[in-house]
Amino acid sequence: MYHSDFRAFERFGAPLTGTPYFKLKKGPAPKALMIFRRQLEEEGAIKIAKVDIGGGREQIRTVALRDAITDHFSVDELQLVDEVIEELWNQNAAEVSNASHDIRWKVLELKDDIPYEFAYLSNEDVTSQDIARTHELAAEHGWLERYGRP
User: Fold this and answer.
1) Which of 3, 7, 119, 145 is the most exposed, fewest CB within 10 Å of its CB?
2) What is the pTM of this model?
3) Is residue 34 part of a domain?
4) pLDDT at 150
């Protein structure tokens, strides 16, 4: 979701879901993920399953029990989601997590909200000056007041 939402914000000026994200150790996460997941489970739309991935390891997966409802999305938005899926398809959880540790993630403290405006930040190597400038911009533009710190 993170990759699709932030890419949509960058490309279209609006995220797909609008859900707030925050920084966790393994990467950005939607704040309401567990609520969404529980609602979808209660509706019978998904189930959470443990899947043997070999080598004595298990993976917890979300399994769809119905087709996706896509009529709320434009063709361009659906193509964007397909693009993100294709890019991430052959990556394992650690690789997806590492890829999400971009500038948006690096300049924040754990549990800080990630403003959608961060989609416009460059993903080049982050320096201490970049982090300081990001904090200056956050103060100047009211991002801390707008998004707060949990």
Assistant:
1) 145
2) 0.76
3) no
4) 37
